[in-house]
User: Which sequence fits this backbone?
C-alpha cells in the first residue's frame, strides 16, 4: 500500500521552501542582465584605456556574470512551468544545472586570471589609475545594488547569481584601492596582486556552489538534513514499529523529498494508518522535508532491519520484493 503525499497536503503549502519567484522574480533577473551588460562595456573600455589587468580580469568575471544571470533568468522561467507526464517533478532542476554551469565558468575564469597575473608579475606593466577609478566605481555601485537587492535567497541558483554580483562588487572595490596605492607609491605590481586575490575569492565561492549542486545531482542527502534525526522522528510517532529503505534527496534547492517503508506496531485500520502518516508528515515538515512518500507494512512483512536500502544485488532483489 503506497501512500503518496504532495508537499504534505494542501494545508501545509505555506511550509514550502525554495520557490524561485518569491526571492528573485524573472523581472529582476532581466533588469540585472542588462545592467551587468552595461558594467561589462564600461570595464572593458576602462581596462583597455588604463592597462589594468585587475580591471580586465574583473571584466572577464562580468562576462560570466552575464551568462550566470542569463541562465538564472532562463531557470526562473523554467521553474514556473507545471509538471507533466515526462517531467513529473516539473522543471525546478533547470536551476541546479544553471548553478553548476555558473560555478564551472567561474573556476575557469579564475584560472585564466591567475595565469595572466603570473605573466604580469614577471613583467609589470604601467597602469593609468584614473580610468581604474571611473570604471571600477561604476561597476561597484551597480553590482552592489543588484547583489544586495537579491541577497538572502535560499535558492541555490539565485545564490550563485548573487555570488557573481557581490564578488564583482568586492573586486571593483579592490581595484579602486589598488588604484589609490598606485597613485601614492607607483608600485604597479599591486595590479596583478589584486587580480590573484580576485581569482581566489571567485574560485572559493564557485567551489562551494559546485559542491552543493553535485550533491543534489547525485541525489545525496541534503546538507541541512540529518538522516538519523529523520529516522528517529519517524520512529517516535505512536504506532510506528520501525522504518527502513529510507531515502532523502533534493528535487531542487530548498525542496527536499523523502521515501521510506514503515512497519506499524500491530494491526491497524486504513484510518489508523492514515493518522500515523499525517503525524509523520507534520514532523518531517519541521525537518525541512515537504514531499513525502510512505509505504505501510506490518511487522510480519519480510524486510531487512537496516534503515538504508542496500545497494547490492541482494538489496535490489529485496527492494523489488517489497514492490
Assistant:
Amino acid at each position: 500500500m503506497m501512500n503518496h503525499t504532495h508537499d504534505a497536503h494542501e494545508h501545509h503549502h505555506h511550509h514550502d521552501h525554495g520557490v524561485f519567484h518569491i526571492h528573485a522574480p524573472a523581472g529582476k533577473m532581466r533588469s540585472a542582465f542588462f545592467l551587468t551588460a552595461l558594467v561589462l562595456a564600461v570595464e572593458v573600455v576602462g581596462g583597455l584605456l588604463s592597462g589594468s589587468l585587475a580591471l580586465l580580469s574583473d571584466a572577464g568575471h562580468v562576462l560570466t556574470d552575464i551568462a550566470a544571470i542569463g541562465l538564472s533568468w532562463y531557470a526562473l522561467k523554467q521553474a514556473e512551468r507545471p509538471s507533466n507526464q515526462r517531467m513529473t517533478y516539473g522543471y525546478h532542476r533547470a536551476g541546479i544545472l544553471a548553478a553548476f554551469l555558473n560555478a564551472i565558468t567561474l573556476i575557469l575564469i579564475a584560472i585564466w586570471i591567475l595565469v595572466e597575473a603570473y605573466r604580469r608579475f614577471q613583467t609589470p606593466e604601467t597602469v593609468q589609475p584614473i580610468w581604474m577609478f571611473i570604471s571600477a566605481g561604476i561597476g561597484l555601485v551597480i553590482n552592489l545594488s543588484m547583489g544586495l537587492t537579491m541577497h538572502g535567497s535560499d535558492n541555490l541558483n539565485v545564490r550563485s547569481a548573487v555570488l557573481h554580483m557581490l564578488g564583482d562588487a568586492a573586486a571593483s572595490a579592490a581595484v579602486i584601492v589598488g588604484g589609490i596605492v598606485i597613485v601614492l607609491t607607483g608600485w604597479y605590481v599591486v595590479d596583478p596582486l589584486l587580480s590573484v586575490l580576485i581569482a581566489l575569492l571567485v574560485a572559493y565561492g564557485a567551489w562551494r556552489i559546485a559542491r552543493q549542486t553535485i550533491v543534489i545531482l547525485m541525489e545525496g542527502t541534503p546538507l541541512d538534513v540529518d538522516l538519523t534525526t529523520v529516522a528517529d522522528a519517524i520512529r517516535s510517532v505512536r504506532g510506528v514499529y520501525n522504518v527502513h529503505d529510507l531515502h532523502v534527496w533534493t528535487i531542487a534547492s530548498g525542496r527536499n523529498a523523502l521515501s521510506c517503508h514503515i512497519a506499524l506496531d500491530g494491526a491497524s485500520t486504513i484510518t489508523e494508518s492514515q493518522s500515523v502518516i499525517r503525524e509523520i508528515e507534520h514532523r518531517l515538515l519541521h525537518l525541512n522535508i515537504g514531499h513525502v512518500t510512505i509505504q505501510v507494512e506490518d511487522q510480519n512483512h519480510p524486510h531487512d532491519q537496516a534503515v538504508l536500502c542496500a545497494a547490492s544485488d541482494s538489496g535490489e532483489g529485496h527492494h523489488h520484493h517489497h514492490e
About this structure: The longest strand covers residues 240-252. Residues 181 and 316 are 65 Å apart (CA to CA).
